[in-house]
Amino acid sequence: MIRVHYSKLMDFVCSSRGAYTVEEKGEQLIISFSPQLESVKEHYEDATIRVYAKKVDEYAEVYDAEMDYGGKSLRKMSVDSLTPWLMTIDEENALV
Amino acid sequence: MLNLKLYDSDVRPDWCPGCGDFGVLAALKNALATLELPPDRVQISSGIGCSSNLPGYIKTYGHHGLHGRPLPIAIGIKIANPNLVVIVTAGDGDEYGIGFNHVVHAARRNHDVKLIVMNNEIYGLTTGQLSPTSKSGQRTKTSPDGSIIYPLNPLSTLLGAGATFIARGFSGDPKQLSMLIQEAIKHRGFALVDAISPCVTWHDIYDEVRRKMYKLEDVKHDPSDAVAAYHRMNESEKIGLGIYYRTEERPSFEELMHSEITSSIPAENVKNLTKDQIAQALAQFQ
Amino acid sequence: MQNEYNGNQDVTVRLGAAAGDGIQSAGEILMKIFSRSGLYVSTYNGNQSLIRGGHVWFHIHAGETRVYSLGYGIDHLVALTQLAYDEHFSSVNQGGAIIYDPSAVKQHDFPAGVKKIEAPLTKMALNHDKRPIMKNTVAIGLLGGLMGLDFGLIGRVIGEQFARKPDVQKSNVEAAKEGYEYAEQFGITKRLRYDYGTKRTFMHADYALALGAVAAGCRFYAAYPMSPASPIVHWMTANAKKFGIRVFLGEDEIAVVNSTIGASFAGARAMCATSGGGFSLMQEAIGQAAMTETPLVVVDVMRAGPSTGLPTKTSQGDLNMVLGISHDDFPRAIIAPKSPEDAFYTAGRAFNLAEKYQLPVIVLLDFAIGDGGYATVENLNFDFAIERGKIVREATQDMHNGVWFRRYMLTEDGVSPRALPGTPGLMYVAKTDEHDEWGHDLSDVLAGLKEAVNMREKQHEKRMRKMEYLAKEMRLPEVFGPEKADLTLVSWGSSALPIREALPKLWDKGLRVNSLEFTDVYPLRADVRSLLMEAHDLMDIEVNYTAQFAKLLRREFGVFIEKSYLKYDGEPIYPAEVVKHVEDTLQGKEVKQLA
Question: Which of C182, C189, C265, C261 lies closest to C222, judged by CA?
């Protein structure tokens, strides 16, 4: 489980020109990333990455992620692999 | 250690969440800050591809050039101004395919330029074709039934070409990767850091890498032993991370060139000739 | 074809032998002797791309006043092989001489009015050395005697040539002496007015360009060997230590041009040169330089193509290539010096323009004035102004956004301020993608968005705007001859010179002809149009099949040049050909029309 500041996450999402969107369901956050490459659609119906996090105080704790290729094709991603990405969002996680 | 914020760009990377390149970027920033290299002393050249977008995401001098060609650009920069720390960051398609000829010669001549290859065994930006390091049997857009092409082993090839520093890291272990990059920068001459940097969209090998990886220092590998290095480079079911081979015995290209020609560097020597020099030059034509 | 003997003011000498016979060296000795006798020279190297055998020749045209080309016919032919005799005997002028060794060469169809100089060159050579190659030096001595030159000078020059081989130095001078004395029995064939107090300087365009570049501050040169550009890298490496030049030998032309761009990006004056085939490989990188706005000086020493073509023959066939090279529109300058002297000055100009406008400047030389031919150069001024354009060490407020330097700032003249790597606080990323003023990509997530579309248009215009300002600095063609003429000969680059040698002959015949010599071929100034329109009639003369320059003029100005003399056999233009062609044209004879 890794966490980032909720405010930093929202800043990141807002400055992404629509590449990232966030859905809030109570405490649950679903961050979606849709690459804006039309050519993705040649290979897969879709390639949306969905990151699941839980709001805890001022943090968002990331606990799950999946790659949605469209149709019924879903692949689980390791949360571990998101660490470097999260380091960019919130430098508190930066490599020291 | 310098403040990491010194290297912050105002451009957000457009890599996918989970992209290994984030880890390489973090490791690189950390390495520069640890070595206390101010941003204006650092030059990062790249080619074309997702990973080649890196220079815009770190505040140093940068050159985002042509596919396969960042190394000769870097070589020219280093000869013109050897006071710069010159680094190339690019992908496996860029450096192990179209640009590999330049890598082989740069390694052989031992130019003091550091090459970090973000290796994801695929052509990511152009959406999922086979790359020179794609494994046999790998399914990609250009190999829907599994690749029938034997992959390149860049590490052992460059060992044979005379490279003096060869290391492999993993974007999922940015701490170790930062150490490897620091050692590369400190190394006398050409250094290759092959950074496994999985592509979550087209070829997600995170789990596979975590299963197979081990640290070379944990098995007491001796990086001065080229034969041992060669064997480890050819392991099929294990992925060793660390410095495979290293020698500080060979002078770098720049040392040799600048010892021959001792006057000031090209970037600072933009002057007319002196009267004496003119007379010398004309002598053969009279 | 025999020509008339043209008086006592100039002379043409041709040495013919097989490759490996040392004819190049012999020719250079002779050229030095003439130059130190106060004569002007223009030489041509009829060599072949092999090491031994075949047929090679060295031609020297020397004169009391400036000479521009091979001249007319051959006054003195030194034929060291049968093939040399067979190839050239019919070009010897009346009143001239053919020198040969009857034991090696059987004369036939000996031209009337030509002196027969039979000399046992090999036998004389063997008196001084075991190797018959010394027959060249015997021949030089003999020729010197026939021309009434001072032996002291001949001996000195030969001695210098062999200064590094003391074992043969003395015997070479003695061999020359024997040849010189042998000549007495024949009398003087042709004597010019020699001025031993005047030492003239000779250079070919490759060397002149190299020297000019270094004099203008170039200290980085990258190369991959290719005829006929190799003399430049030879000169650079020979002088590297002396002048602090870093020479980089790339693994291929792609490494060469990219490293040159890298060096320039880092603030050095950097250059590379090749011929057509190598230039083809440099195409992508040239576009890169234009897009990243990095100054680049790149040289094409043209040779006969297409493809591998003829490595040791001349052509002006690459104009279309350099006009169109690399995809899409970007600014560039193309300059084609007309002579070695012009090449010397062009180097410095090229660097100033490349740095001022931050774009690629392409210099076109060719075999005829390059590796193929030395010419006398005079009044070389080494005090080039070094103008580096908008390099900044500190940013003003509008040049910086707190993170990045505004490298691609939109400006009135299209040229943005430029920071060199290593300068504190002015970091930026040079970009080959389309970019905004800060060097950020417009190509990925922003592509198609309104502001990106707008910025793309502005950046494209910015780059191309440089051409308007650049055009004002391009030189107009030089006019050679009378202001008003019935026919104006249009040429570019090296073709100007044989035309200069042809014009006086035409004037002697009462014909009113002048020539328009272009060196700055792109961009062309707008007022070129009126120059062309004012001419009574135009004829295009160039060395390629499709009249590339005439077609450029047509495209740019709508001026339709119908008459032409196009040469594309690999040999240089002979002034006699120009004379004949112009005469035929003015007499209304059938001439080839341009399509």
Answer: C261
